[in-house]
TrEMBL record:
Name the UniProt record assigns to this protein: Extracellular solute-binding protein
Top-level taxon in the UniProt lineage: Bacteria
Biased composition (Gly residues): 31-40
Coiled-coil segments: none
Keywords linked to the UniProt accession: Cell membrane, Lipoprotein, Membrane, Palmitate, Signal
Lineage: Bacteria, Bacillati, Bacillota, Bacilli, Bacillales
Gene source species: Paenibacillus chungangensis
Annotated stretches, region: Disordered: 31-58
Signal sequence, start to end: 1-20
């Protein structure tokens, strides 16, 4: 009986030993299959951890993020690093920020040496590197669900979506946007009972009311004609329509030179000429630089200024106590093709994945993480600027002016001209804005100059493209 009991006990011990051995072998096998070579969990959206990711926590991953460290600083990237590492404990984010990153990163990318996993730099580099095979095509990522259930495709602004398009592919997500339009003195408007106009005809009436008070309706940094671009670009869309914008930014040889006598140009230039000839501008505006014109606006010498979202931060030490301003779009006239107010919203920078990165799936996950509403709101909170997405800023500790910038791009149609390589841009024969603003050329003379010189400019551009 004892012998039989001993045999039964021994058999049970052997069974447990075999099971323990099998269990150990199974764990070892799983660890081996879920290392760096098998990122099964890394393709999930940015919202949660899969079983594959849990297994990978024992296999550390380091993502190197290189970024241009300019006026936005590095606080947003530090926040991204902390939040991402909290969510994925086995992932380490190494940050490399530098004010000269746009220059530093180019030889590294093009030689394949010391290439990071993610770059946040100037978007012109995206259009250069993408077709050259140096960036990963992330077109599909635009449809991936984010942690908040949204998608990049569903929240990106129209003008930015166009800017991200490189021959039908997407090689990056937008970083920030620069909004430029008309900024008005809120307190002055309220005290005089003025309302910001919804149409150009209403703007004409408002201008006369402002002039009657002895105040200049407008000013801008007259030394820099590019401050007039947001006005003109909005007008191109309003009076030329989407087809004109497409021809302007992506012309064929057949479009030259007739493109430059298009009604979209003539009407846009004509409106600017009206503003100059009818004394809409503060006297002496042409001699003012950016800070001087902005000071005149803050002093109440002009009711409105053509400027961008950086104005408040740039002039923060000079803002009068209680001063309030608001960003608004360019209103359309009755003959507009696109009968909507339009505001220019330019893409500034992109986040992309070098094709040489060894951690493609985790890099994609990080880009998705940077594009959530939470990340967008945090960027605005930390920098006072906006990302190129539509998102709520309710409850954020930001100024009323910053809120107005975001509201403008979320509410109104946006425009950003993104020129294809063969395009001549908008004024190949003469600096149209400078000539019209100074009164040295009429609209007809500007149009004639552009038409006359554009064929030769086209040939020069094609020759240059063919040698690259």
């Amino acid at each position: 009986m004892k012998l039989q009991l001993f045999k039964m006990t021994l058999a049970v011990i052997m069974v447990f030993a075999v099971l323990a051995g099998c269990s150990g072998n199974g764990n070892n096998g799983n660890n081996g299959n879920n290392g760096k070579g098998g990122n099964t969990g890394a393709t999930d959206n940015a919202g949660g951890n899969s079983d594959g990711e849990s297994a990978q926590k024992e296999e550390p991953v380091t993502l190197r993020v290189s970024f241009f460290q300019g006026g936005y600083g590095d606080s947003w990237f530090v926040w991204l690093k902390e939040q991402f590492e909290q969510q994925y404990e086995h992932v380490t984010i190494e940050l490399e920020g530098n004010p000269k990153m746009n220059e530093i990163i180019q030889p590294r990318m093009e030689s394949g040496t010391n290439v990071p996993d993610i770059v946040f730099v100037d978007d012109s580099l995206m259009r250069k590197w993408g077709p050259a095979g140096l960036l990963t095509d992330i077109t599909d990522l635009y449809q991936e669900p984010l942690a908040d259930g949204k998608t990049i495709a569903g929240t990106i602004t129209d003008s930015t979506d166009n800017a991200m398009d490189v021959f039908g592919k997407r090689y990056g997500v937008p970083w920030t946007k620069l909004t430029q339009g008309i900024i008005y003195n809120v307190k002055m408007f309220e005290e005089n009972g003025w309302t910001y106009p919804e149409t150009w005809e209403e703007m004409e009436e408002l201008v006369e009311q402002i002039k009657a008070k002895g105040i200049a309706p407008f000013t801008y940094p007259g030394q820099y004609p590019m401050y007039l671009f947001p006005f003109g670009h909005a007008a191109y869309l309003q009076y030329g329509g989407p087809e004109f914008i497409e021809k302007l930014t992506n012309p064929s040889e057949e479009d030259i030179p007739s493109l430059y006598e298009h009604a979209g140009f003539k009407r846009a230039y004509g409106l600017l000429e009206q503003m100059i000839q009818e004394d809409w501008m503060l006297k002496g505006t042409l001699a003012l630089n950016h800070t001087e014109s902005q000071m005149e606006f803050l002093r109440g010498k002009a009711a409105m200024i053509l400027n961008g979202e950086w104005l408040e931060n740039e002039m923060k030490d000079a803002l009068p106590e209680g001063f309030s301003m608001r960003m608004m779009p360019i209103p359309p006239a009755a003959d507009a093709v696109v009968k909507e107010p339009v505001i220019e919203s330019l893409t500034s920078g992109f986040g992309g994945i070098p094709s040489a990165s060894k951690h493609q799936e985790w890099a994609k996950k990080f880009l998705l993480f940077t594009s959530t509403e939470e990340a967008n709101r945090k960027f605005t909170e930390l920098t006072g600027s906006s990302r190129a997405f539509t998102y709520s800023v309710d409850g954020l500790p930001i100024s009323d002016f910053t809120k107005s910038v975001l509201e403008a791009t979320n509410t109104y149609k946006t425009i950003a001209l993104v020129y294809k390589p063969q395009a001549l841009e908008e004024s190949p024969g003469i600096d149209a804005y400078s000539a019209i603003a100074s009164g040295s050329k009429t609209v007809d003379e500007v149009v004639e100059a552009n038409m006359k010189l554009s064929p030769d400019k086209w040939k020069e551009k094609q020759k240059l493209l063919n040698t690259q």
